[in-house]
Amino acid sequence: MTIQTGAKITILSFISALFLTGSLAQAQAEPSGSATFSADEIQQTLRSLGADAETLGEGMAKGIASVIAKYGQPTGLIVGGEFQGSLIVGYRKGSGQLLFKGQAPEQARKIFWEAPSIGFGAGATASKVCLLIYGTRDHTQVLGHFASGQGSAHWLAGGSISVLSNLAHDAEARVSLVDVAVGVGFDLTARLEGLTFTTEDSWLPF
To answer: Residue 85: exposed, middle, or buried by beta-carbon count in 10 A (0-12, 13-18, 19+)?
Structure first.
């Protein structure tokens, strides 16, 4: 029996959504406090990492506050920027600094992400990104592919919020990232494909 491409995408999106729901429910159950970032502490950390005016702007602040209100306080964050170009099939590429609560700014690790993106239209956009980390304090668990579940992305004024998970079968190894991004000329469709994170720069999205 042949499964059509559209059906494959729907099935994968459904499975991803189940993992995302369970992962973030577990994160909400974890106690907040000294091991997690409050919204104010995130803003302070962004400043200490040298974030620019757009990253420190009202749009990003509202997005971060919305995520914390819904999912709780994160154990870590990634702050940076990304470029996206598209002509039917496109490409997303970004880089930033990864830091967990309790670490000094000089302990931040450089991290890169990339993915093919599928959407309609042509052009290029640049955006500022803050990814909130749930379920781990180990940077190695933030590496690899993170999938986006169906219905996990939505518009934010001037940008978007989307949820990604590593889809680990073991609940203790399950990690979620909530991607808060702001920028002009946003393409939400392109943020539904998931992301692959590495410690080395690359131009290969597959």
So the answer is: middle
129-139 per-position pLDDT tens digit: 999 999 999 99
Of 1-10, 13-22, 55-64, 80-89, highest mean pLDDT: 55-64
Q: Is the pLDDT reported for residue 19 higher than 50?
A: no
- Other beta carbons within 10 Å of 73: 22
Boundaries of domain holding 66: 5-198
Of 25, 42, 48, the closest CA to residue 104 belongs to 48
Question: Structurally, how many domains does the chain consist of?
Answer: 1
How far apart are the C-alpha atoms of 176 and 163, rounded to whole Å?
7
| Three-class SS state of 16 | helix
Amino acid at 43: Q
**Whole-number Å distance between alpha carbons of 170 and 173:** 5
Distances 43 to 7, 71, 145, 199 between C-alpha atoms, Å:
41, 18, 27, 24
- Three-state secondary structure call for residue 57: coil
Least Cα distance to 99 among 61, 131, 65, 62 occurs for 131
- What is the reported pLDDT for 95? 95
- Tokens 């180990």 correspond to what residue? 138
Q: Judge whether 197 and 112 are in contact, CB under 8 Å.
A: yes
Which whole number is the average pLDDT over 66-70?
Answer: 92
* pTM across the whole model: 0.77
